[in-house]
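Sample log: Complement C1q 2.
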Amino acid sequence: MEEELNALKKEVRILRSKNEESSKVAFSASLYGSAGFKDFGPHEEATTLVYENVFTNNGNAYDSTTGIFTAPVKGVYFFNYVVFNPSDYATGVRLLKNGNFVVSASDNPNGQDREDTTSNSVSLALERGDQIHLQLIEHRRVYEDTWRRNTFSGHLLFAL
């Protein structure tokens, strides 16, 4: 009986440890990590944005070579992105879940100013393996410089 109790206690410790590790999911990245300036777009077709300058990537769920976040556990996740563009071009970025549109953020120049920032946020229930990425809308543009004003972030709120 005591042997069985000790085995169960050990199993509980292992499961708690695994649960704690799997619930540590958070990432944040900016679009461009190098010094200087860079335009993204405009393109004839929508294009995946790859946020290459990673600030944090707990759980390694964000891939900075593809721009795709893959949910490591089933749960509710929060995502936020900020888009900057200082020109006469319209800007627009949409968030996709498994290739399907969820939300977008856009700004059209009105000639009154020279710098525009827009953002959006969403909480989503994801299954393990679901993928999230940002897409530059066709014929739109974003601009990045050393101020790193284009960011993409997400984290697990709670596991399900």
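Observation: The domain at 25-159 is CATH 2.60.120.40 (Jelly Rolls).
Observation: Residues 97 and 132 are 5 Å apart (CA to CA).
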